[in-house]
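Record type: monomer structure entry
Structure origin: computed from sequence
Chain ID: A
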Amino acid sequence: MVHYGEMDARAQRTRDQLESAILDLATLRPLSEITVTDIARAASITRPTFYAHAESPGDLLASVLGKELEHIREEFARAAELLPDGQVLPLEQLNRALVRHCHDNAALYRNNLVRRLPREMRDVLIDHIEWALSDHLLRHPHLAPRALHGDPEDAEYRYRQFAFYAAIAASGTVAALETWLRSPDPLDPDWAVRAITRGNAEWWQHGH
């Protein structure tokens, strides 16, 4: 008889094998050349088992990267919550964590970078940066430029405004990371952090 705990442990082992397989394969060759059969073989599972965990190789890789990006976002939020009232956590801290993530996974990102990253990899980066920046503005609403129209006291309108600014900054940050990853070796993380931080609108830190 198989107990639920054993089933959970087995499912987690399978998930771990899948995540390890996609990271290894995507570091060796482009995501566009990796098939479900390749991943199933590398993870020692069947194709139906793969589809029980992911829809595609890109979906699986985005999920793996998303775990680390979620951790970065949560750490940024946690650090912000520890600050005294009125103080704003520098965006440089978020930028540094993002650059470190890309640097630690440089082989993976560079192997899949032609002009831009594949949609799945690009979208997961943009999504998590957008969420982090939207939360930053919700935590410090006084930073955002004054609304051009609409009622600034309307919570839904204010959220849409913050999401708009977060989307602009997130897309720009990912494009900057792609440009940096295309640089010759050795990659300079400190330079990337400074450049991205300087590229952020000044009001993100000091208000408008």
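Annotation 1: Residues 34 and 132 are 31 Å apart (CA to CA).
Annotation 2: The chain has a mean pLDDT of 92.
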